[in-house]
Amino acid sequence: MLDRLVAPIRHFFLEGKTLDVPPLDYTVPPSFASHLPWIDVNSKGLVQLEDGRSWGLFFDVAPMVTEDKTQEQLHRIVRSVANTLGIFVDEDSPWVVQFFARDVDALQDMHERLLSQAKVDDAFTRAVFEEDRRHFELISRPQGIFSVNNRPWRARERQVRLAIYRWLPESASEPEQQANLKALKRFRRRLLAPSSFQDLGITLTPSNGESIHDWLSPFFNPSGVPGETHRYRDTRSPIDKDFSERLLRSSVRSDAEHGLWWFDGAHPVATRVMELDTWENDQFLAGAVFGDVLSDEDLEKSEKRPQHVLFDELPPGTMMAMTLVAQSKAQARERLGTVRGGAVGDEPELESIRQQCDDFNTLVENHPLWRGQIAFYVQGKSVAEVNDRTESLRATFDGRNLSLRFIKNSDQVAPLDSFLRWLPMNYNPAYDEKLWYCGWVWLEDMLSLSPLFGRARGTGSDLFHYFNRGGELMGFDPLRDHLSNAHLSLFGPSGSGKSATLVGMLLRALAMHRPRLFIIDAGNSFGLMGEFCKRHGLSVNHIKITGQSRGLMAPFADAKHLLGQALPQVTDDEALKAEHLNDDDHHDDEARDILGELEIMARLMITGGEKRELDDYRRADSSMVREAIKAAAENADAHQVQVRPTHVKDALLSFSQDEQRPQARRTRAGLMAESMAFFCEGLEGQIFDQDAEHWPEADVTIIDLGIYAKNGYEAQMATAYISLINRINSIAERDQHSGRDIIALTDEGHLVATNELLAPYAVKIVKMWRKLRAWFWMATQDVADYPAHARKMLNNNEWWVMLNMSEDELSNLSEFKHLNDTELTLLRSMRSEKNKYKEGVVTGMNNTFMQRFAVVPPALYLALGETDGEAKERRKILMDEHGMSDELDATLLKAREIEAYRRQHEEEV
Fold first, then answer.
1. Ramachandran class of 524: left when φ > 0, alpha when ψ lies in -120 to 50, beta otherwise
2. pLDDT (tens digit per residue) in 408-439
3. Where, if anywhere, are coiled coils annotated (predicted)?
4. What pLDDT, on a 0 to 100 scale, did the predictor assign at position 775?
5. CA-CA-CA-CA torsion sign (157, 158, 162, 163)
6. Which helix (H) or strand (E) holds 350?
7. How far apart, in whole angstroms, are the C-alpha atoms of residue 625 and residue 520?
8. What pLDDT does 489 receive?
9. DSSP-assigned letters across all residues of 818-872
10. Which residues, 6+ apart, have CB-to-CB distance to 278 below 8 Å?
């Protein structure tokens, strides 16, 4: 342009001389998109290819979980998949099956995804999800926020796709084209049938255009384009069906000298393809590249599974492409015959070839021999970086003793073509008659190396976000994923991150589903969380049992429901024993056993929960106590007051003076009345024997058991706990049609489970909560503190979360939950590193779901959950340094300190 402006001036001074103006260049560089095969991708995964005749299928793949599998199990799965893929054998026109895997940064859109699912979009929800956004942004960096075994740990998404297609010849008639399309749809139905992949633990979902765009657009636009996004758009008209064109956001340049394709954008990124040459292994571990696997021999020796799988260690941006061409047994044998026929001579090498061909002929009967190739796409910002990453990839495979040998860069023929060849649905077997690109391979070996194997990813829900060891999101949602109930038990010994994990679970639950939350605590562990909720607009009611408390409990408030009802009696002394109190209860019972619940309450007050007293409680005592409760309800109703322990005590006292009763019964009634008087006088009278104060309507209610959490107050604490559960139950019954869940969390749950009567009571009342959308959550540090009679209370909970438990703790856990060897092995595999991560295992969905996860919480969750003395001291220092009067402000400042410390992690990637 500058030359054209300067030329007239030069002409003025140089008249008569020839002007030197470069000609305008109207040539257009060749279209890169013309080398891509996709015209359109519909909502069911069908792909129209560029010749207008051929079709393919795309599937999103959720790989099977390998953390809890043996090689024997995995090889059975490999054989089953190989049998399923046999449907694609067609000698006239071969079908092609491809697997692709690539790690991408996928958390940048998580903030919007969470907001779109939130039940309430308000200041609190946005405050919680903003902390999550900051956290996701931080942990998605290439260097992550910490290292594990000298390797950076970072969040990522492993995208796995399956492509199935075949190219029809130009001579294909219209009926042949229609038959081909019908066959593809039939294959889709077959692959989606549960017996094909789902029953093996592999989930196939037909890809839509957006899914494929979100996968391929970052690959073809690796550095992005300033001012643009990778967002997908639907076709706008019938002439807008060029999916390939819509993928490309920047220009593409070929570099024949270095065998690279350069993708321009914010900055140029080069991509090279590396092709498999050969391998020396006789057999591979199933899941050798993508699975958390060991040989069965190593598992028997109790060797630990690897912290990292091979694909984790490949250079960032690397994509694996595995291409398989279906071949029949006849085609395989024909090829073997050709090879054997060419091995003519007496040399040992030729004799060996003939023998191998004979052996392979036998193997082909049960082990498919197909054609295939594995290629890796490696990206870098410069030629030097691509070369370095190429060598890194070779070294990674060599270091895992897989003996895979890749073609040297200098030996590649037409590397630019190779890049195009292994793209999805681009390889055409008709152009490879001499087998230059896809050689003969054992299908089962290739499947063992495929991305059908992986790690746990949870249920796919977004309520609780944890990670697997590869940094992929692992999520589950007890409130929506449950099959029987959303009751939950959490076990986390000291140092396991229990408090931070609970705080994170509760904040996420409130932000996502906005349940009404009740927390029964024994030490104000959730006080800061409550203050955070209050600051961001939630209503919070904080209750603490102290010497000044009045009217906190209403143990017999539900007795009013007994008016006008007959009194069922217990007919067997054996049924009164604590371990048998729920023998006749069923999950599908429609009505509460209110009288039975209240009798347990009265029995607790009478006996104090002491074993000797409980053993003395007989069927006749039960009958009299039930009669007293009914009389108390009638008396209170007559005086229009709430039923209180005093009314039950007075009824028993009147029985002791009733001359119509035998003397032994009168004496026993007097003793029981005296025992109940303890809860009608003094501090206990203030708390239990007053009309219950009204609880304000609140999103979050935190009840601190205070003095009753100390030793010597076991009977009072159990009574208080039952009263609290009763009160929560009344709210659940009142609001059962509101559509709002209730979560009732008991922290340090073993403290309230020590009483023999409490656990049966909890089971009796909580069994109805499923119908009320109320969920009973219990957390504790040490499962060993749970007595045997608590077994039914724990097993009533569908969801169990176990954090980094020691061998002793696992032994104690086995007393309450049946665990097979595989499950115990998975539990024993949990690891942790201080200030980095804690691992846990979750089980749910009626024991059909059990997966390991790593807890790497946002800094806010950590700061709000810190309850140790060191953390309290640090908050006090921050308050003094910054002149703060509010401990929450110091906690938020501590969260920023944690975040800053994590941000300083800058190790070389």
1. left
2. 887 887 889 999 999 999 999 999 988 889 99
3. none
4. 97
5. positive
6. helix 348-363
7. 29
8. 93
9. ---HHHHHHHHT--EETTTEEEEEEEETTTTEEEEEEE---HHHHHHH--SHHHH
10. 405
Q: Which domain holds residue 398?
A: 53-106+156-237+274-327+368-454
Q: Which amino acid makes up residue 354?
A: R
H or E segment to which residue 274 belongs: strand 269-279
Tokens at 887, concatenated: 């401990």
Structural domain ending residue among the three candidates 676, 691, 706: 691
- 3-state class (DSSP) for residue 509: helix
Same domain, 302 and 174: yes
Return all residues near 544 (Cβ < 8 A) that are at least 6 apart: 524, 703, 704, 706
pLDDT class of 455 with cuts at 50, 70, 90:
very high
- Give tens-digit pLDDT for 485-511: 999 999 998 888 899 999 999 999 999
Q: What is the pLDDT of residue 813?
A: 85
Strand 55-62 and strand 46-49: pairing? antiparallel
Give, for 888, the enclosing helix (H) or strand (E). Answer: helix 887-903
> Which residues have C-beta within 8 Å of that of residue 283, sequence separation ≥ 6?
445, 448
CA-CA distance, 880 to 872, in Å (whole number)? Answer: 12
How is residue 654 written in tokens?
């009147």
pTM over 0.70: yes
Both structure tokens of 340: 């054997």
3-state secondary structure of 370: strand
User: Residue 705 pLDDT more than 60?
Assistant: yes
What band does 64 get if pLDDT is binned at 50, 70 and 90?
Answer: very high
Count, residues in the chain: 909
> What total number of domains does the chain contain?
2
Between 468 and 344, name the one with better pLDDT.
468
Q: Does residue 226 register a pLDDT over 90?
A: no
Give the position of tokens 């607009």. Answer: 537
Q: Say if residue 278 is in the same domain as residue 397.
A: yes
What are the DSSP calls for 561-607, one per residue?
GGTT--------GGGGSGGGTTTT--TT--S--HHHHHHHHHHHHHH
pLDDT of residue 574: 54
Q: Which of 429, 454, 479 is the endpoint of a domain?
A: 454
Name residue 657's amino acid. Q
Residue 510: the pLDDT is: 98
Same domain, 590 and 448: no
Whole-angstrom CA distances from 904 to 126, 144, 907 are: 26, 10, 9
Contact predicate 621/672, CB 8 Å: yes
- Return the amino acid letter for 87: I
pLDDT band at 908 (very low <50, low <70, confident <90, very high): very low
C-alpha span between 369 and 360 (Å, rounded): 9
If residue 324 lies in a helix (H) or strand (E), which one and from where to where? strand 319-325
Tell me how far CA of residue 547 lies from CA of 682, 842, 843, in angstroms: 10, 40, 41
> What are the DSSP calls for 377-422, one per residue?
EEEESSHHHHHHHHHHHHHHHHHTT--EEEPPGGG-SSHHHHHHHT
Residues 6+ apart with CB under 8 A from 621: 668, 672
CA proximity to 816, closest of 491, 483, 586: 491
pLDDT at 572 over 60: no
Q: Are residues 311 and 170 in the same domain?
A: yes
Give domain status of residue 247, yes or no: no
Do the domain assignments include residue 29? no
User: Is 471 domain-assigned?
Assistant: no
564 shares a domain with 676: yes
417 shares its domain with 560: no
| One domain for residues 316 and 186 | yes
Backbone angles phi, psi at 540, to 5 degrees: -130, 130
At residue 892, the pLDDT reads 94
Q: What is the mean pLDDT of residues 439-468?
A: 95
pLDDT tops 80 at residue 146? yes
Q: Specify the 3-state DSSP secondary structure of 226.
A: coil
Note whether residue 697 is domain-resident. Answer: no
Residues contacting residue 715 through CB under 8 Å, at least 6 positions apart = 604, 605, 608, 609, 610, 755
